[in-house]
Amino acid sequence: MGHAPLSQTKIPVPILRATRYVAATASPRIGMKKYWHVINVGIQNNLTYRFNFLARTLFGLIPLMAVLFLWRTIYSTKGADATVSG
Asked: At what angle do helices 28-48 and 50-76 cross, to 10 degrees?
């Protein structure tokens, strides 16, 4: 009803081609700028509640440390040529 046919839409094709050309030849640093912005926003979001960030970080390391100490203990009780089996 109120839509124009696709052939009558006014899209500046040369501008689109120029944009594609610039994006394809731009330096990687410029292309990464948007990703750094997203990372920066994520860090700021996490640091908004500093205690929660610290608690998540510390409590995330506890299981990792437990597994490392467990395997260190398992292998320390075995000899150099022994195998660990169930």
From this structure: 100
| Calpha distance 19→15 (Å, rounded) | 6
- Model pLDDT for residues 38-52, shown as the tens digit of each residue: 999 988 887 888 888
Helix (H, G, I), strand (E, B) or coil at 77: coil
Number of domains the chain contains:
1
Q: What is the span of the domain harbouring residue 33?
A: 15-76
Query: Which tokens hold the place of 3?
Result: 């839509």
Residue 7: inside a domain, yes or no? no
Report which secondary-structure segment, H or E, holds 20: helix 13-25
pTM: 0.38
User: Which residues, at least 6 apart from 47, have a Cβ–Cβ distance to it below 8 Å?
Assistant: 53
**Amino acid 56: pLDDT:** 87
Classify 84 in phi/psi space as left (phi over 0), alpha (psi -120 to 50) or beta.
Answer: beta
